[in-house]
Structure to design on (419 residues):
């Protein structure tokens, strides 16, 4: 048996040196292109593909991984409730265990300790694995930390389009896992669940996917299960106001406790797409619902995907080219007081209903410095008049406080649990 102390990343590197590593272009499966993306040469040939498995995301940092990381092709979302008798001390021990497991797996190393690793991902590298941890509203009461609960964790308002399943909503603890290899992602999910022990109980778990990096000839914005380009106007780290909109400042205002410095808030929604109804529409009708061309994501007013939409442009008959209730019009930041959020979703498919309808849609995850200024105003407006609302159903929901990243020798949430 091979020495298990050798990291999977090192094993993959050895394979690559002998020409055995599999390749894939570092395309944009989400809203940012991976740095290792390939493109065609001047003679029409394609540049050599790089190995997906060797891509590593750092666990330690100012912010937790899995927020600005390009969205991966495989994802798992899981929520836990603290078990009766679990208090602050036990919660701290749990976050310490979780953080160490995440650090090791993200570096391409086994879980550690004899018989603790299941070997599911033994032959793979890190594969851009990220593990992200957050706290729900109920966590603070159960651990005696009510005074440290951020105001941003107040329950979201009710929306008329909600059909929420309480059993699949909220939770004391939330974990987001992403990777560009399905076995690596499952391995991390299983490791997190095994390390939970008796401290917490599973509340709900959801699985998602995206287009794999390298599946397209060039990096592209991903498509959702409606076939629409999804994420064109996502905030970018290069934007001057990106950090202000997405992350809690280093010196939080009164609404945010000090332990949230460098953190963010995640709103998670399971949005079922009524695909049978959607697919009955003509392409033209679908484009009017969204406000963009289906083929390339460009606005109906012309140009390319990134061209500014002309909201005042009319047809020869005097009608608006982009309908008043088009999703892209209603959701624009400049139509919502500048509200912005970083969308980082996964698609999901959980089989078919007894009627043969696909139980499929979007595991919507958005990141912002304050949900009351990010998600809520946009969703309120969509709830009142979005043409897309007739084709989607919000079935689960949650909001989580995701603290800043852990430094070397620290665990996620340490400033809260030991402060």
């Amino acid at each position: 048996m091979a020495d298990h102390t050798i990291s999977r990343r090192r094993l993959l590197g050895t394979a690559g040196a002998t020409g055995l590593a599999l390749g894939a272009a570092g395309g944009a499966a989400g809203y940012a292109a991976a740095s290792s993306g390939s493109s065609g040469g001047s003679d029409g040939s394609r540049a050599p593909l790089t190995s997906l498995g060797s891509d590593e995301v750092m666990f330690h940092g100012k912010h937790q991984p899995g927020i600005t990381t390009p969205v991966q092709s495989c994802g798992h979302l899981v929520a836990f409730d603290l078990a009766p008798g679990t208090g602050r001390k036990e919660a701290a021990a749990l976050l310490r265990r979780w953080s160490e497991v995440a650090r090791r797996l993200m570096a391409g190393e086994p879980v550690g300790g004899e018989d603790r690793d299941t070997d599911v991902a033994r032959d793979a590298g890190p594969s851009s694995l990220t593990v992200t941890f957050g706290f729900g509203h109920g966590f603070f009461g159960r651990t005696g930390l009510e005074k440290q609960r951020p105001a941003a964790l107040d329950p979201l308002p009710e929306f008329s389009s909600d059909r929420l399943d309480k059993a699949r909503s909220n939770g004391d603890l939330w974990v987001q896992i992403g990777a560009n290899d399905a076995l690596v992602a499952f391995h991390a999910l299983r490791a997190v669940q095994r390390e939970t022990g008796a401290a917490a109980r599973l509340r709900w778990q959801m699985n998602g996917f995206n287009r794999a990096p390298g599946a397209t000839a060039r990096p592209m914005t991903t498509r959702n299960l409606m076939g629409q380009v999804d994420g064109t106007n996502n905030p970018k780290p290069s934007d001057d106001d990106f950090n202000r909109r997405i992350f809690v400042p280093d010196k939080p205002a009164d609404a945010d406790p000090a332990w949230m410095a460098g953190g963010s808030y995640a709103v998670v929604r399971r949005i079922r797409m009524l695909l049978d109804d959607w697919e009955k529409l003509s392409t033209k009708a679908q484009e009017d619902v969204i406000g963009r061309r289906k083929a390339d994501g460009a606005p109906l007013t012309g140009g390319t995907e990134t061209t500014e939409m002309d909201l005042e442009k009319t047809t020869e008959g005097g009608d608006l080219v982009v309908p008043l209730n088009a999703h892209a019009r209603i959701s624009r930041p400049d139509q919502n007081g500048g509200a912005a959020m970083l969308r980082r979703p996964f698609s999901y498919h959980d089989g078919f209903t007894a009627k043969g309808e696909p139980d499929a849609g979007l595991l919507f995850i958005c990141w912002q410095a304050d949900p009351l200024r990010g998600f809520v105003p946009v969703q309120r407006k969509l709830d009142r008049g979005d043409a897309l609302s007739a084709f989607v159903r919000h079935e689960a929901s949650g909001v989580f406080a995701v603290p800043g990243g852990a430094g070397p020798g620290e665990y996620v949430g340490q400033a809260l649990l030991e402060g």
Observations:
- The longest strand covers residues 358-368.
